[in-house]
Amino acid sequence: MVQIPDRYQRAAVIGGTAWLPETLRVHARRTLLGTLQRRQARRANVVLIVHPKSGGTWLRVMLFRLFQRKYDLPARRVMKTDELQRYNQALPRFIVSNGHYSYEAAVREVLTNESADDKQLIFLARHPCDIAVSWHLQFTRRISAAKRELILHELHRPIDYKTIPLWEFVMHPELGLPGLIDYHNQWAEFFAGRSNGLIVRYEDLRADTRATLQRITARLGEAFSSAELDEAIEFASFDNLRRLEEANYFHNASLRLQDRGDLSRYKVRRGKVGGFRDDFEPAQADEMEALVRAHLSPILGYSGPVTPGALAASQRA
């Protein structure tokens, strides 16, 4: 039986519902895309949970480069779900998801309510303050209109994405720093103590890329030489990824250049650890760090008590 690639199924849902009135369109897409996500999560061998702007693209490119060179795969489509297995049935089937927003919450439902013991689970964490700025740019300028519409419809505190200032976005209880902290706490709690779960911090991946990447590939049951790891790291370097984006090298729509004249709309921005302080007044940056210290789970190593859900709930109230 011929299996339609996951990306085509998603495109069919988006295109096939485009003519509907907004309320019906949102409901249909949330339902149909949620069903697709559940099916992908159940079939996946590897689940990579990563919030937008946490280094997920960088990690995916490195992993794909390793598999692509080792197994002689086509070079220009980075895996997100079934791409590797469609090229080679012996390779793992992935699902890369935030597991949280809109229909992607279906991934968390599957992992929580059904057995996930047959999967390798990886959570890529990043300091929430550093996510916040890039997430604002991603949400207001790069994210697809269809996905943004779905997220906007589920917010308890609506926003105007076209005009919302950076600080107001960062303090928003669901999309901003309170929501990011809760997001990390919930996934840290889920991963804690799981023998098939691996938490990787973006900061560690930056500090010692080869060793951290080797931990991930070992968890996937793959062995790569130091030379192979170094080549993949070089291929996914900031400068090279920026060049590839400008050349529209990758076939993934999410990795393509949108506006050459607007640096804020580049997928590859800067990836600087602690870079959030460049975008705020010192008092604002201090307030952000205080929220993280007070509320972020110590499981992640950024320091702070476990309070999943409490901060966003209090902010909404």
From TrEMBL:
InterPro entries: P-loop_NTPase, Sulfotransferase_dom. Keywords: Transferase. GO terms for molecular function: sulfotransferase activity. SUPFAM superfamilies: P-loop containing nucleoside triphosphate hydrolases. It comes from the Bacteria. Pfam families: Sulfotransfer_1. Signal peptide: none annotated. Residues 46-296 form the Sulfotransferase domain. Belongs to the sulfotransferase 1 family. This is Putative sulfotransferase protein.
